[in-house]
Amino acid sequence: KMFIGGLNWDTTDEGLRNYFAQFGKVDACTIMRDPDGRSRGFAFLTFDDAEAVSAVVAKDHHILDGKAIDPKRAIPREEHLRNTRYFVGGLSPVTTADSMRAFFSAFGKVVDATVMVDRESGRSKGFGFVTFEDAGNSASFVGKLGLVLDDKEVRVLRSSRVSAV
Fold first, then answer.
1. What range(s) does the RRM domain occupy (predicted)?
2. Which fold has domain 80-158?
3. What are the tens digits of pLDDT across the range 33-69?
4. For 109-130, how does the pLDDT look when each residue is reduced to its tens digit (9 = 90+)?
């Protein structure tokens, strides 16, 4: 299964299928759409033969309907989050999702940063989660001492389970 990002808003399922047919027999392709039918700019595609995925990934540039697209092997959401989501403890009461995102962006592309807050008071619970696009630099922050965010030392651990946020 593949994730295809960066689609032209006018790309059709048929056009997508036709483009990827050059790599192998396309089993299914679905452009994700808003309830009103407008493309969300990405799709999922499966081939009959897994080797076709390797052929797609091996090619440097893909252009469809005049736009560079970004095909990647699809990673199941649960597995992706488990591998790229980290628990951040010891947060300062002034830490926000934005300040957390800014701090952790030094370690890679941050796709989500969340500070957990008490529903009643709206105050920080002192912990949160940060999710990266990939887990490549985790050794530089997981379990390391001396990480200071908003004048407070924080600790980062692998998130052992995906919790509802």
1. 1-75, 84-165
2. Alpha-Beta Plaits (3.30.70)
3. 988 888 989 999 999 998 999 999 899 899 999 999 9
4. 888 889 998 888 888 999 999 9
Strand partners, 86: 130, 158
Which 3 state secondary structure label does DSSP give 46?
Answer: strand
- Residues in CB range of 54: below 8 A, 6 or more apart: none
8: which 2 tokens? 């032209």
CATH topology match: 2-74 vs 80-158 = yes
- Nearest residue to 159 via CA among 113, 118, 124, 122: 113
Q: What is the CATH number of domain 2-74?
A: 3.30.70.330
Residue whose tokens read 């403890």? 89
Residue 127: which of 86, 98, 76, 71 has the closest Cα?
86
Q: Is 0.70 surpassed by the pTM of this model?
A: no
Query: Strand, helix or coil at 123?
Result: coil
Question: Helices in 5-153 by DSSP H: which ranges?
Answer: 13-20, 51-58, 77-84, 97-104
Q: What is the pLDDT of residues 129-153, one digit of tens each?
A: 998 877 777 888 888 889 999 999 9
